Input
Amino acid sequence: MNEPTKDDSRAPDVQIVDAPTTRVHDPSDLLGLVLSALGVLAVLVAVVSAQGTTAGVAQDVRGFSWLLRRVLVFPVAILEGLVTLIAPVAVLTELAVRRHGRQLLQVGAAGLAALALCVATTSALTTFGSTELLHGLSVSRDGRWLLSVPASVAALAGLLTAAGPRGRRRTVLWSWNLLWVSLGIVLVTGQVSLSGAAVALLLGRVAGLGVRFMSGVQSERAYGSALVAAIRRAGFDPARLVRVADADEHRMYDLTTTATEHLRVVVLDGDRQVVGALARLWRSVRLRGIEGRSLVSLRQAVERTALLAYAARTAGVRTPQPLGIAEAQDSMLVIEGLTGAAVPLRLVDDAHVTDELLHAIWGQLRSAHDAGIAHRALTSDTILVEQEAGVPVVWLVGWDSGDVASTELARRMDLTQLVALIAVRVGAARALESAAAVLPRQDIAAIGPLLQSVVLPQRTREEMRAHSGLLEELRSALVERLPGTDVEPEQVTRFGVRTVLTVVLPVVAVVVILTSINVDEIGTALTSSDWRWSAVAFGLGLATYVGAGLTFAAFAPVRVSLRSATLVHAVGAFVSLAAPAGVGSAALNLRLLTRRGVSASLAVATVALVQVSQFVVTIALLLLLSLVSGSNDTTLFAPGPGALIAMGAVLVGLAAALLFPGVRRWAVRTTMPTVRQTWPRLVDVLGHPGRVALAILGNVMLTMGYVLAFDASLAAFGQHRGIVEVAVIYLVGNAAGAAIPTPGGIGTIEVTLIGGLTAAGVNAGVAASAVVLFRLLTFWLPIPLGWVAMRHMRRTGEL
Output
């Protein structure tokens, strides 16, 4: 923060010591930019997936064009030109007259950026867009379809967005009104398409908000005389106002009134409210047991904070009392009593962190919990400590994230947050000892399942980085104090990074597929494909379950019938809807073995051996196919110069990384457990040549079944490629599906297979049709069979 400066000019009767105002990067601009970009994607998807609806709406709008032409005196083109010329000139002129030179440049840059973005988007759509997409964004003129994403609309929208809110300047308000009127006219008269106009407007918003966020905007926060006027409206007459230098989340001021009262002013700013509200909403959505919250206004947030403070004081918690609330510009302020000489817990010397102080902290939290109040954001900054006659006095502040009538889980999270932040200062054993001196036994036991980093606030997680393994120490100390206590982590998150990826990646893949291929052509191709080859592909897909069952039965340390081994892999077809490719089958194999009495370590070693054998046999098959095919064309396997450079860079990077001891230790730590588990089982299996032969046969059936099914799907559309080429394309696509954790490889496998076939010279529409048919026959149709198999195996007790 900048050094405080005296600001007496704006409030001559009040001494103000404050930091000078600065331009701010408003988070709401960034949020609007993201939403506008998502809006562009939504429009493009809607154009393709709901083309009939969008075309119908556009046709209804253009149905009034005959009436409008009779009303209009000037040609539509002249009217549109005047609007796109007059509006920006008016805005720029006002900014120049008011001598807002920086904003003048900002507005001009936004208009140019929007124009460039629109031109780039139009070029990309023309080059990569599907026929349906281009048709939905086009209008018919003189019997020809022309792409209509008006760059003038995008430029004007970007310019007006960068100029700021409509209520601030009349030229901006009237320019937006003129833009909407002219846009309605050109839509009705068929000059542009409805979807094209929407894309142009949203692109303009993206550019305008992007320029605003990067360059910053003049702060709308209350400072100086505005702040003093708000304090007076709250019922206090200020004499001196001094900015608190170490305030973290909100602006804080020490207020001295003309009646020599010493108070604290907490100022909440609108631009900061956006970030805080989104963070709280995200936490409520992600964590279980925390009620969801809608985005509230700044006024509602302040009123909620005051309510929590009043409720906490009524419950006997020592927290500052709100004395007044007022609004000023884009800020809300709360005037409250001072906390004396209290300082945050993080600033208290270790020598002064006594057992008496720790008991006082736990006592304050228990008082809140007894009244059903949860804090939800306990950190070393929200706990204030002072001394009164040698006795430690504790204050709890920062109730803006709290809850009245809170859930049991929310209160348990408070206990976990507090024991963790105390453990950072005094260690795990002493932290639990201090809790046990105040809390009931059942409350202490409830902490164990929540000792997870996701429950802790960001400040506490940062402090714990210097104390590696502290959560494990807390679990051990808890079990030592209360033997038999459950410390198995409880599922408190509704989703994590992996879950987000499994949702986002398939959606992105679907968007790519819908916007880059001709859906109508695929439907026509599927109906005209040769059903006999489709039947062959479906049969080969089912044969892969028998192959996987053979390998599993051969490597199993106990007797597993081929029927059971085949059925469990059929169940994997159903489980793959919720698990990444390859993960579901491995988990089912583990469960089948453990249900038959196999130890967990031996079961893991068996499943790892199955997966390693599949990889080895697949590589061997590729080499064998290249020899048996008799082809002298080595270009299929010969990498180009770019690929050689990339592979060389990867190898050099790996070699350089292994020079560091930390990287070597990580590599050993990662690979050695698998080697130790697999090697003894491999030695045991190699002593039975018959089992090895069955395992190899099963892996060949598994790999070749899918390769031949893929080849049959191509043959259904009259495409006949070399078996080696088909195998390479399939195996690369399958590897991509296994590498990216989407359920069943949905999206990633399709995109990779279509790209591989297209690169091999297959028509894009035919490639997409063949891939859709292949995935339909080998992934989607077996799912009901997998469900039936799962019901059967559960009924018989095998799963």
Notes: Residues 344-481 form a domain with the Transferase(Phosphotransferase); domain 1 fold (CATH 1.10.510.10). Residues 1-10, 60-74, 631-647 have pLDDT under 50 and may be disordered. Residues 112 and 155 are 7 Å apart (CA to CA).
